[in-house]
Model the fold of this input.
Amino acid sequence: MNPVTKNKITVIGAGLAGCEAAWQIARRGIDVELIEMKPVRFSPAHHSEGFAELICSNSLKAARVESAAGLLKEEMRRMGSLLMTCADRCRVDAGGALAVDRDLFSAAVTQAIRENPHIEVVRREANEIPRDGITVVASGPLTDGALAEDIRSLCGDGLSFFDAAAPIVTAESIDRSICFAASRYDKGGDDAYLNCPMNKDEYTAFYQALVGAERAPVHGFDVQNPKVYEGCMPVEVMAGRGEDTLRFGPLKPVGLRDPRTGHRPWAVVQLRMENSAGTLYNLVGFQTNLKWGEQKRVFRMIPGLQNAEFMRYGVMHRNTFLDSPRLLDLDFSLRSQPQIFFAGQMTGVEGYMESGVSGLMAGVNAARRLQGKSPVVLPEVTMTGALCRHVAQSPTNNFQPMGANFGVLPPLEEHIRDKKLRYAALSQRALEALQICLPDL
Done:
């Protein structure tokens, strides 16, 4: 493979995927021009000038290596991920999950990028993809305007659905005489979550208010037939599926006992620590598109939140992704123009670290393309390799985003009935396979 003549790589977007891509390119001694439109222009979902801004939740999902999300994060650590280095440094107590102080996390990533001598940050809006060199497009799922039109000219129409963010309340406004600190089945310590218990009557009243609450209009998008993505479904949409849907979903009371009664509640709303200072909590699973006044009215019906002070209300925003199996190769390059790479949620991965690992692999392979080397494709038994194959090789008739899960991995040669043991074996197999590949990375 012949090397590309231009000795600099352009990365568009300083979100999770773009920062990871830029970092991986730079750590290989290659100069990067990182184009970021903030603060010249903000998307509807972004508010901070910092890089790698977390939008929906501050949780990066399960921490243990024997979980799918934990395995992905461990693979990223071993591959030299900037995001994982910063996340481990900025973590807050979240039981069995890895959650971060989002402001400290963004600041850490921003500082690392700005201090890297191989990365030049350019604050402007990208209106087109350069065609005279290698580019990694990581502009995010809210890409619009001239850049979106340029992408459409290369790739055809994308698909749109709605993504929702959960509200955040102050810790001091939570009634601790009602809420109690505990993790399900006493796993992960008692400081990770605050629990708002509901009896049957309280839940029924809350449910009826929730499904009857007025929703905010979604401006600029097709609201006649929105595709609501299952991985970030608004709580009011989930509730509309049936009165018990929430009780068997984000409000499930299993593994918890109300210390006031000694019994398991009918339903439980969990609050997760939002920052390292413990001054903010988010409502777990409460992504929503209710009007702000309705959010205040309905969510204050939750026991313990009757005087809740909302620091951020839930908001709804667009998410667009490519028909990647038709368009992208396993290295995240565009089949029709291999000097152009895509990374992040727009490729069809779902989740913070899934977005990050797509940026990692796109960055590694963009650098290798510049150096005239063959791309690195990890084995499908690794979580990273499996996600790459989901992006590039899924059936194209109904391509949907995918997050890390053990279902995307090939089964073990010998079936293990016990789920925990099976997951542990899958994780061990993945890390052993990754270790063999690390010299190429």
